[in-house]
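Sequence in, structure out.
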Amino acid sequence: MKKSNAIIVGGTGQFGITLSKELIKKKFKVIITTRSLAKAKKKIKNKKIYIKKLNILNKIQIKKLLLRYNPKLIFYMAGQSSPGKSFYSKKETYFSNFIGCRNFLETLKNYNLSSKFVNFSSCEIYGNYKKKINIDSIKKPISPYGFAKLKSHNETKKYRERFKLKFYNAIIFNTESIYRPGIYLIPKMCIAAIKAKKNGLKTKFGNLNISREWNWCEEQCKYLLKFIKKKPQDFILSNGKSYSANQMLKFAFEYFKLDYQKFISSDKKFIRKADSNIKKSNFLSSLRRNKIKRIDKIYGKIIIYKIIQHYLNEKKY
């Protein structure tokens, strides 16, 4: 029996790698696109994954890719993904997150392809929203990244409603894994704890009073695939389990029985521009609407411990 094709656009990050494994288990042929074949091949060692070079701003390349593979599923996760960095790379953030996404939407419509298209939206589109976030909560992004994500979110929704296409917006809340780069907050905490234990080193952080729902990437991918079996829609992808950055940092240092306050200091240069203090989701609303039950096993302290154990085993610190 011929395998169905799944294309992950910009899939060399944590979601692309993790989702690829799930799709291969489900007998999909997985094609990951990238700007740089050399960098992608260093990250992706699985020989069952096909890696193709693609410029998401080139409609001719997109057309050739889609007509060649006629994918059943397309996941758009390309784009500059740091809200903080987006203030200094506005053009790259806008073009990679919005224009590239729009190019796929246009190509799918123009060539009448029946693919399910999943745009990776973000909780950053809601900006500094104080209450629990629903799908229909007021969207006021406070970073160029959030603005670009909102543009792609709205465009995906517009194409779905206007042309009756099978297009989804997955609104992703903070997600972690062993593949997350060390510049992000949770991996940085884990590395700081290891360095404190091994060498007594201190690490500088920015605002640790923020609170987030930190999810585990494997669980996020598992429920993502459940949602896209349902009718085309926008949905929230999160576990609803909120922890402050201080709590997560404490977990990291407790792994080594250390007091984190002795090994960290504050530095204004690590404080993100226009950052919201709290991000909470009304994750149950999307689950109930789709009759999906979500049970997460990896969150809070367990996320921290899994990443630390990985770094110690791989000597990545």
